[in-house]
Amino acid sequence: MSKGGAFDLATGVGGQINKKEVLSAVDTYEKYHVSYGGEEEDRKANYTDMVNKYYDLSTSFYEFGWGESFHFANRWNGESLRESIKRHEHYLALQLCLKPGQKVLDVGCGIGGPLREIARFSSTSVTGLNNNEYQISRGKVIWEKDLAEESPLPWYLPLDTSRLSFSSFRLTTVGRFITTNMVKALEFVGLAPKGSQRVQSFLEKAAESLVSGGRKEIFTPMYFFLARKPLSGTSEAS
Ligand SMILES: C[S@@+](CC[C@H](N)C(=O)[O-])C[C@H]1O[C@@H](n2cnc3c(N)ncnc32)[C@H](O)[C@@H]1O
User: Fold this and answer.
1) What's the CA-to-centroid distance between 185 and ligand 1, angstroms?
2) Residue 135 Cα to ligand 1 middle (Å)
3) Are residues 163 and 206 located together in one domain of the fold?
4) Which protein residue's CA is at the shortest distance from atom 19 of ligand 1?
5) Which of 91, 123, 149 is the last residue before a domain boundary?
6) Rounded to two decimals, what is the model's pTM?
């Protein structure tokens, strides 16, 4: 079950990071994003640390605002965010032609939202692989298409502050305003670690950039491709 309450959000910020070190982790993480990102070799060397810090800091916000599955979905009129996410996971299972009993590897599985839904939907056994320890603890060929292109509702709609939504209230302008002040208060009284408000702030910035990239059609988070290794012993393999 996903942790969706204010207390879970507050106590989850920082993930595996010691609560007293959350603030310095936020500092380090933000420094990875100065306008010039540093030498390529340094960036490569710091990649794992950057990803880990990001997911340690942001996972409880994801769960609070989005749910157990950390991806976007194309969306139909009248469909809630949750319904569209589940439908998209079913769609992926169908595209992969998953059959009961098959073994599947989910690389970069987050906290396992899609993994669990796809395993249930297709009666397969899905193993998750992830480089972020906190998310693991929270969760225990060729065909290409940009699924977002045919979406009746834009994939970035849940993050678009100009819309009203009761089903995804936490993502609306008012919902975010409440979350901002709630996180501030939780940080002030010491329930949330120092730095929590800054995490919320950089996630807000990321959301704004996603909406802007989506509107300009220069970014999609839903580029899907299906790949299969050639079957051994067939002409495809030679
Ligand atoms: C945007 S999240 C998506 C998670 C999940 N697929 C979902 O939709 O809920 C990307 C995930 O990839 C994981 N990841 C990033 N780089 C990785 C790597 N080199 N090896 C394994 N996992 C990685 C992150 O920890 C994170 O869980």
Assistant:
1) 30
2) 9
3) yes
4) 131
5) 149
6) 0.80
**Boundaries of domain holding 20:** 6-66
Of residues 18, 68, 48, 6, the one with CA closest to residue 200: 6
Q: Is 109 in the pocket of ligand 1 (CB under 6 A)?
A: yes
> Is residue 237 in a domain?
no
CA pair distance 173, 160, nearest whole angstrom: 8
CB-CB contact of 123 with 101 (8 Å): yes
d(CA 157, CA 113): 21
Q: How far is the CA of 110 from the centre of ligand 1 (A)?
A: 5
* Number of structural domains the chain divides into: 3
Q: How far apart are CA 213 and CA 215, in angstroms?
A: 6
Which residue stretches of the chain are H helix? Answer: 6-12, 22-31, 40-65, 81-95, 113-122, 133-139, 173-188, 196-215
Separation CA 174–CA 80 (nearest Å): 18
User: For 146, phi and psi rounded to 5 degrees?
Assistant: -95, 100
Q: Which amino acid belongs to residue 35?
A: S
69 and 117 in contact (C-beta within 8 Å)? yes
Separation of alpha carbons 33 and 206, rounded Å? 12
In a domain, 62, yes or no: yes
> Residue-wise pLDDT tens for the chain (238 aa)?
455 688 889 888 999 999 999 999 999 999 888 766 667 787 788 888 999 999 999 999 999 999 999 999 999 998 999 999 999 999 999 999 999 999 999 999 999 999 999 998 999 999 999 989 999 888 764 345 566 676 778 889 889 988 887 777 888 889 999 999 999 999 999 999 999 999 999 999 999 999 999 999 889 888 888 887 777 776 655 5
